[in-house]
Request: fold
Amino acid sequence: MQSDMTMPLLAECASDLSKSLPRSQRDPVIGIIGSGDFSRSLAIRLVGCGFRVVVGSRQPSRVAKGVFPDRVEVRSQREAIHAAERVVFAAIHPEHYHSLVGLREMLAGKVLVDVSNATTLTSHKQSNAETLAELFPKSSVVKGFNVVSAWALQTGAHDGSRQVLICSNCSDSKAMVLELARRMGFSPVDLGSLCASRGIEEAPLILFPSWGGPILTTLILFIFFYGYIFLRHILLPYLDHRENNFYQLPLVTVNQTLPAVALVTLALVYLPGLVAAVFQLGRGTKYKRFPCWLDCWLCRRKQLGLLSFLCTALHAVYSMCLTLRKAAGYTLLNAAYHQVKAGIENSWVEQLVWRADLYLSCGILGFGVLTLLAITSLPSVGNALNWREFTFVQSGLGYAALALSTMHTLFFGWDFAFSPGAYPYYLPPAYLLALIPPCIVLVGRLFLAVPCLTLRLAKIRKGWESTQYWPVNNQEPGGSREAHPQQNFDDV
Amino acid sequence: MQSDMTMPLLAECASDLSKSLPRSQRDPVIGIIGSGDFSRSLAIRLVGCGFRVVVGSRQPSRVAKGVFPDRVEVRSQREAIHAAERVVFAAIHPEHYHSLVGLREMLAGKVLVDVSNATTLTSHKQSNAETLAELFPKSSVVKGFNVVSAWALQTGAHDGSRQVLICSNCSDSKAMVLELARRMGFSPVDLGSLCASRGIEEAPLILFPSWGGPILTTLILFIFFYGYIFLRHILLPYLDHRENNFYQLPLVTVNQTLPAVALVTLALVYLPGLVAAVFQLGRGTKYKRFPCWLDCWLCRRKQLGLLSFLCTALHAVYSMCLTLRKAAGYTLLNAAYHQVKAGIENSWVEQLVWRADLYLSCGILGFGVLTLLAITSLPSVGNALNWREFTFVQSGLGYAALALSTMHTLFFGWDFAFSPGAYPYYLPPAYLLALIPPCIVLVGRLFLAVPCLTLRLAKIRKGWESTQYWPVNNQEPGGSREAHPQQNFDDV
Amino acid sequence: MQSDMTMPLLAECASDLSKSLPRSQRDPVIGIIGSGDFSRSLAIRLVGCGFRVVVGSRQPSRVAKGVFPDRVEVRSQREAIHAAERVVFAAIHPEHYHSLVGLREMLAGKVLVDVSNATTLTSHKQSNAETLAELFPKSSVVKGFNVVSAWALQTGAHDGSRQVLICSNCSDSKAMVLELARRMGFSPVDLGSLCASRGIEEAPLILFPSWGGPILTTLILFIFFYGYIFLRHILLPYLDHRENNFYQLPLVTVNQTLPAVALVTLALVYLPGLVAAVFQLGRGTKYKRFPCWLDCWLCRRKQLGLLSFLCTALHAVYSMCLTLRKAAGYTLLNAAYHQVKAGIENSWVEQLVWRADLYLSCGILGFGVLTLLAITSLPSVGNALNWREFTFVQSGLGYAALALSTMHTLFFGWDFAFSPGAYPYYLPPAYLLALIPPCIVLVGRLFLAVPCLTLRLAKIRKGWESTQYWPVNNQEPGGSREAHPQQNFDDV
Reply:
């Protein structure tokens, strides 16, 4: 008897069969109020995970055969709540919550799971879960499962997002729903008490929350460079001497803008790391929080990097299509005409040949390295790396890509930037402007590679703190620290 | 004592050690009959998941040291079955099942797992699992684990497919094997009773079941367009005036066919959604099932989309290789010769320059958007999106890609379609034919964006049903519905 | 009472709430010594997984509010160890392990988890875990969690590597930590006793262990072909008749080297499979281990294939950029000049047009097939295939890609290899050398497709063994085998 009771986890599936009771009487029963799409998908998933499910409908007779799987019982709402052992899902529209008030006493002591979404982003309203909690003060309301689609529920967590955000004021009920979510194959995230429910309800309304800033930055850079090149190459020449370059607008100008945007964005990926290092060096500790803007910037590096890669890839495709343009054909034909008329047998200019081959080479290699970086950003590839490999790829290859892209631009510029003709209307070429941020980053990185700075930074990152920091900022007596020379003891 | 018994799940690993029994005596024992590749991999996995394993071999002495891990005991078949608490895997060739008949009484009451595959797709034979169940009427036979390779078993579910299809006539035994599969890191799918075992056994024989229809569709479209272009551009000109265009067969004709196929296939991705909306609008409810062909079509949209992307990507690469062709060089040289001979200093035609730049731009952007769509089709990327983000990408970006591709084709066509010369032998150019389906889809989509239709559709998709629908189709008295104004109550 | 005790696993979350004890008193308590970065991340994860955590710091008062989540108690090291039920993590620098010696008696009987990394790859030192085990002989030391980054711990196993390598001399303690790791969402791998700890500690120091050989192979091939082409096309012509081709170094030579490397590497992917088949045919059994070099080679096929794909992709991009080069423009202009001067109206050479179109077609298709192969190498895509689909893609499409690449090279070579001019300085062109390995593989594959060999191989792979093999190699009497005609009985 004792040995049976204390049998470890893994033995349970073996001991399961030895019971005389039929299985269906031993599984926990989950209740679902509502018989709509979400209810149906939830029931399919719960049954598939070994639970018994009773669906409560206003009109159980109206629910068509075959809508729910055979193992799901469809009964009245009252019967479903009665049958549910502990957990009842409220899978109905929030505007109909009040209609359940008559079942208040039956729901007392049960865990009521609110799965509804917010419909608008209004900041001054109560959340649906809070409304439900007010209506049923004797039940413990748990918010969750709203970020999951009916489709993900039905097809399994393979194909949908696994993350389920959960909150509740009752930690026991929350623990139960967390466990339930885990058994259903989701990755529940505990967000604390019910005051987080507004955020959870609004989560599906906010698209790609971490992409807003980076996309905006990229867009602003694109508009700036496009406008600048339009002004310098098209508008001013037209106003000045009626040169018609407007045909360049759809393709050529875009292809001049994209590499500038890509280069600046890539520099913005590595700039915050340098700024953070400077902060740590200046403060002499890693334990003080970075300013908010820097924290936020550091968290957006992956998105900035992917947008930089997107611009680079588009630039590559645009460039490879350049010779397909009718304009390229006409230019070549006219050049041939003039060469023949001028009687030049060989128009070869060795220097220009080298320039083109060098900037193409650097560009292709830089693009290749960036592509490797983008591939390791795929969740399934990143998961297969340990963190040192990930760091090597993201930092080592990242700087290689930045250096190659900068060289691509420098070779493209060649020595033309030194001739006065490169500054019509006193405007420098766009690629010169785009070179400023990456050059700052590369010079800054080289500067940090000076041994004394590198060593100090490594020490700080291992937990060491410079003593002059504490008295100034935290008012902790410096003396008490001297007594504990092992202050970096507690870190790995 | 009481507190020990009621200790929750998560405490068990902590309480585990407090027992005086050695661990090996408390783990459940799994038996495996057979000592081949599959048996070995199964044993490695089971042992790795904390089970004790006893392998039963005809000749245990012949099994070489080191083939099985140390913790696996290799004994006679009789001893292995005796040692197994409940579950015995039959990892032998199905043609040898009869040789186990002598062990029938020993196997009585145990769960016998059949892991065999079908060797041919013959529809009139009994499945291996059914044969096993007949031979051992007192054991409960469970079918499963056959879709998993020995390799996936050994290396863990990371690298192999996680899905394990399981069926059995005994629901208790099935529940036990489902739990076992879960503990081994697989995602078991319960397919019901043993009559499903034929399908499970044949599953590994059918390659990419969901890809058959879409690939066939794409192939038929490819053959049609290739044949059409061959006829119009190569065969008829040759028969008519001996124009030799046969050199176009390997590359140029393929590159004219691919965009046509890609455009039609992309339109086929968005057409079924429109048809479904029309069905829902016409019926006034979303609760009636779509016809079978539409259901099937809706389920194949992802595959059609990926095939369309494949054609688009090939078209992009082919196009970018066009100027590498010797033919392109010769054409340009001959044009230069004629321009010089004719004494034309500048052959620039502004309109054709604009046309080329515009259709290249639209093509590149459309290809870029399609690539984003294809990337979000990767399981690991799709998992990282919540369902509203997924819908935004798949529907919003999808229509953008369709619109850009259509514009790419329209700009390519320019105004040439209005000149009589575009219809040699009364055959319209292929791109005109390919434009028909996307134009239908885009016009249909615009039509559904009319406010009254959009609002009605949104209402229907929230669960509202038009009253005139029910009496006609379901013969349910309309009156009883009026008494329940909250008929859309039960949905989320 | 009885029914409560025997309640199956899935019911526990339901029964959990029925207890009168508050939940926090029933969760197991985990102790963490150290309050650094890793400790903090570990605590966040453990609390998120439902454990109670007590962190032991030298100076609990110095740990700032908000560094640890609210549910984590920060106390003295002594109190933390006392509070921990069984498991204590030692999240401090290994050089400070000796400072814990005073707590030796308190730690007796507890499980001490060493999470430290090696700092250098020195083969003659004791591992950190072994040092810890020596210091605390009464505790059971378990090595693990070191390959996980603090970041992966905090953000969940979604974003970091899931694999956790674990070893210990005490199998009970190890089992407990394995279970703990599983509950934290990781995939623990049991590597046996503590003597494996050195390897585990050094694992994060070795970057991409399975990539070393393949990358070296590819590099050597690259250097060989680059040198060969440099010699044949640039250096010897320069020494011979001062022909200046040095401008080809950055791009043209690289683009001639890459396809040769890609082709040879791709052949190296399929060669070991053939060698293995020959071994199996020769020995008449699949049960004898392959020689070590072949085993190793077979395990590196995926890496070789991906490197071959990388070279192919770079070759494709380089080739598509060829017409962007200034040199290409000059060549065309000069050709136009000469054509005009020579008065050739049409320079079209039908044969050369066919050659270019054919080799471009084969190249594009081969590249397309290789891309499909590379995509199915992504973990998340490969997971969605069952093993027969995976085999079909990797083997079927792989040979298709090899055949198309070989044809690409053969069409590129055309009949030029038969002219004496193709052998300046008696050196054959590089592509001829690169064709040797793939031709060997393709001919070998065709040879193995001879029915008698195919059937014999299939029999062997099903487990059949030729009788003449055993007496020669294993000295097992052949007679005893004849008595058991079902020797292939034990395999699936």
Q: What stands out?
A: The radius of gyration of chain A is 32 Å. The longest strand of chain A covers residues 52-57.
